[in-house]
Write a structure and sequence with these properties.
241 residues; mainly beta; Type 1 dockerin domain; 2 domains; seven-stranded antiparallel β-sheet; three-stranded antiparallel β-sheet; 3 helices; binds calcium ion
Amino acid sequence: MKDQNHIDRHFAASAIALATAIVASTNAAVVYRSVNLVVPATVDGVYLNVESGAFSTTATTPAGWDINPYGTSSTAISLFATTGTGYMRNPGAGTAAGATRLDLGTTIGSTAFYYGNTIANIGTGVGQWTANSTGYVGFRFVGGDSLVHYGWMHLSIGSNAGTRTIIDYAYESTAGVSIGTTPPCAGDVIRDNMVDGIDLGAILGAWGSTGGAIDTDVNNDGIVNGLDLAAVLSGWGPCSN
Ligand SMILES: [Ca+2]
Ligand SMILES: [Ca+2]
């Protein structure tokens, strides 16, 4: 765990709205947390209270936990749901089961379809996951205000589903308001709230590849190339929000 690396950041929903065309009230705000939270390959995995950031890997704690990736399979990750929690199906996946991988720019809101307990399959179908890659799981949960909120978690999958990490996650603090799978700081490949030579080095090191378990494929088009480099250069410096 790298709990000491938690970075809480709040930024105006208006910035997100530009990218995702969501409708947000003036008080809406996305809460973003960089956590690098390893999900143990166990029957418990990790239970996370989205709003407080509290988590546990040993039992159904902390109080009010909302999302729970877990499991020992090498070809799937299980996603356990508590009352009110749902995991979004990829909008392009038809009625497929377990198609939980979302692309960049996906809107998570009231019109989406949500599974209860479901899985993140390793496979080639729409909404399935690839080893050594990253992707987004959209979810809904019941907040401390007893209302439905929307959020996403950004997962890194290693060589198999037994190696996975919640890189970061975000949720909309205003109940009922949609959220998009849009990172708060494009080009921050190594998520430390700064776009710098470390991010540039990661891009160059992954040049020509599909990206891998680090988000070097910034624009999510399946290849690391000049477009991703341009995103790093254009975002150079401290992330502002
Ligand atoms: Ca960085
Ligand atoms: Ca790319």
